[in-house]
Amino acid sequence: MIRILALVLALNSYGVEPSQLVGFAAAVDDLPPGKQALFLALAWTETDFRPDAVSHAGAMGILQLMPSDDYTPDEAHDPEVAVGLARTELARWRAQCGPDWYLAAWNAGFRRCCQGWYIEKRAHTKPDGWFQCEPEHRSFQEKVERRRRIVSRWLSLDWPIADCFDNDGQPWPVAVLPGQSRKAQENANRAGLTCGPE
Q1: Domain ranges of the chain
Q2: Strand partners, 163
Q3: Interacting residues of 150 by C-beta distance below 8 A, sequence separation 6+
Q4: Tens digits of residue pLDDT in 132-184
Q5: Dihedral pair phi/psi, residue 154, rounded to 5°
Q6: What values do phi and psi take at 184, rounded to 5?
Q7: Distance CA 82, CA 79 (A)
Q8: 61-95: per-residue pLDDT in tens?
Q9: CA distances (Å), 69 to each of 72, 76, 89, in order?
Q10: Residue 10, by phi and psi: left (phi above 0), alpha (psi -120 to 50) or beta?
Q11: 151 Cβ contact list (under 8 Å, min separation 6)
Q12: What is the rounded CA–CA span in Å between residue 46 and residue 43?
């Protein structure tokens, strides 16, 4: 779990308090390796790892779960619980939309993207008759996929971990990623951490 947390803290550019991200890192660490990169990329793209994020459409938490009868707002805002909820939702959407559309559907809203609820004049149809998502939803999917490849590469490397501490002297691991050490240092500082030499 330390490597996942170190990576999240290195990418956390909004300065989220590290203790708020421990549960998320633990839940992601419990996923199969291929899913780890997906969930890290999704949280990075959706909210930049902010557990308290709420979108204009009402999506909540670190993974931007839409309101549902299946869970409470508190569960959607709990980073650790959100991973399990999002995993269930993504599996359902992937089964319905296929691997080429499920992340765009996540971003647009399942029915709007997979069931063609867009206004016809703005949509393009696939050969099977489904409407494609709007360009911004496709670009969201492309961004998540691009970040997933980056995160996968980072997870496969043996990068150093900086010695960082919060104001109470609590140690926190922060990844020193290839070509990203200055950015990681800035992100750690935003989160209230002080880092020593690598």
Answers
A1: 2-98+137-195
A2: 173
A3: 41
A4: 566 677 788 889 999 999 999 999 988 889 889 999 999 999 998 877 778 88
A5: -60, -40
A6: -60, -40
A7: 5
A8: 999 998 888 899 999 999 999 999 999 989 988 88
A9: 7, 11, 13
A10: alpha
A11: 7, 36, 37, 40, 41, 44
A12: 5
Over 60: is that where the pLDDT of 121 sits? no
For residue 52 the two structure tokens come to 């308290």
pTM (2 d.p.): 0.86
Q: Which parts of the chain are beta strand (E)?
A: 161-165, 171-175, 194-195
Helix axes 79-97, 33-47, angle to 10 degrees: 100
CA distance 189 to 165: 10
- CB count within 10 Å of CB 72 equals 13
Q: What are phi and psi of 14, to 5 degrees?
A: -95, 0
Could you tell me if 140 and 104 are in contact, meaning their C-beta atoms sit under 8 angstroms apart? Answer: yes
Give the distance from CA 39 to its chain's centroid: 5
C-alpha span between 96 and 93 (Å, rounded): 5
The two structure tokens encoding residue 102: 């499920």
Strands 194-195 and 161-165: antiparallel
| Rounded Cα–Cα distance for residues 91 and 26 (Å) | 20
3-class secondary structure, 197: coil
